[in-house]
Amino acid sequence: MNNVEKPNDYVNQEFEKVISKIESQSRIFGLNKINIDTTCSVYLMMTEDEISRLSPEELALAEIRLSSYSFTLQQHSNKANAIKNWANRCIRILLAKNWNAYDKYMPYDARYDHMVSSNEYANRLGEVMSEQQILIDEFAYLAQATQHVSESFGRLAKIRRKE
């Protein structure tokens, strides 16, 4: 039973080291200082009637808040992507170390998949990659959608100022 837990424990420890490095680099660039405004969800859920009642100043403020929120979501997507890349690199290194264990005509993808399915360490890394891909997809979509809504608020604010 200890042999089954050791690869997972090791991956989890390495995973924490990678996350720590990513977060420390984010702090260097000031990326962790962004505060998510809870009113962003209110802006994203507004009806057309509610939006039409907003002043140009309120629309501009909504644009700024949503743009900042979009940036934060993209930051989370980038972090998940960095973790996924780390896990993929670890699997590739493991595969390279065991390259001669496979038939020389076996395609790389088949070797990779076999490594993930037959090696406990690679399997856990594969799970990390899957988990992070879900986060990447979700955060990237939300960031893009939020940015589009932000831009719409900005265009509406400009139109209202001209009126």
Task: Describe this protein with a few key phrases.
single chain, 163 residues, mainly alpha, 6 helices, 0% strand
If you had to describe this structure to a student in words, what would you say it looks like?
With 163 residues, this protein is mainly alpha-helical. It is 82% helix and 0% strand. The chain has helices at 2-28, 39-44, 48-52, 56-97, 108-118, 120-162. The relative contact order is 0.15. The model has no long low-confidence stretch (mean pLDDT 84).
Question: Helix count, per DSSP?
Answer: 6
**Spans with pLDDT under 50 lasting ≥5 residues?**
none
Global geometry: elongated
Measured by DSSP, the beta-strand proportion falls in under 5%
Mean pLDDT: 84
Task: Summarize the main sheet.
Answer: none
Category by helix and strand content: mainly alpha
Q: N-to-C SSE series?
A: HHHHHH
Alpha carbon gyration radius: 22 Å
Distance between the termini: 72 Å
The number of strands is 0
Percent of residues in helical segments?
A: over 70%
